[in-house]
Amino acid sequence: MLSGVILAGGKNSRMNGQNKAFLVLDHMTFIDRQIREMNKICSEIVIVAMDPAPYLRTLDRGIRIITDYFPEKGPLGGMFSGLTLSFHSNVWVVGCDMPFISAEAAELMLSCKKDAIDAVIPWIGNQVYPLHGIYDKSCAKPIRELLKNDEVSFSAMLKKLLWCELPEALFKEKEIDPRFVTAINTPEDYEQAVSFYESLQMNYRLGL
């Protein structure tokens, strides 16, 4: 059983304050795309939001919406809340600014998570991507200690966890496009994502 957690508590300052969760790609918001993808393998979906109101107005009531226990602590604060309140021991964590998340990639990572491992995290292009990782619910405890000491970086978290990386080559071997880790931080990123998706659609129509 797998829980899906979407972190949606950022200030979106580099997007001029526009909520990235509600950016649109192919007539569907990022958050709706993520929920659709997570529903393929997750038995529950949790959204961690600074302001729940926009989500309560637009999303199905079956989606759980919670707020940060440690406000103003960035993604790590959101992860703590999501892990703590998830029903299942295995949790797939993503950011709301990731329009190409992959259930196939998450399922592959879950299959590689052994009992002694706290997390399985993608390693794409010689870089670790903590968001889109599969975490054990027990990771909430060391994250809590970090937050209490005002340590909010992913690098600090990774030093406290027993985690394994899943390399890009393994995803490609399974024909999973590694761009599932793509995050949209700026208007320029958004334009590139739209262009990328349109090129995919064109190739599909042309049978390429």
Summarize this structure briefly.
The chain is an alpha/beta fold and 208 residues long. Helix content is 38%, strand content 21%.
Describe the protein in words:
This protein is α/β, with parallel strands linked by helices and 208 residues long. It has a single domain (2-206), classed as Spore Coat Polysaccharide Biosynthesis Protein SpsA, Chain A, CATH 3.90.550.10. Helices cover 38% and strands 21% of the residues. It has helices at 30-38, 53-58, 74-85, 103-111, 140-148, 154-160, 168-173, 187-206, and strands at residues 2-8, 24-25, 28-29, 44-49, 64-66, 90-95, 119-124, 127-128, 133-136, 163-167. Strands 1, 4, 5, 6, 7, 8, 9 and 10 form an eight-stranded mixed sheet that branches. A hairpin with a 2-residue loop joins strand 2 (24-25) and strand 3. Helix 3 (74-85) runs antiparallel to helix 5. The radius of gyration is 16 Å and the shape is globular. The N and C termini lie far apart (36 Å). The model has no long low-confidence stretch (mean pLDDT 92). It is found in: Cytoplasm. One of its GO terms (molecular function) is molybdenum cofactor guanylyltransferase activity.
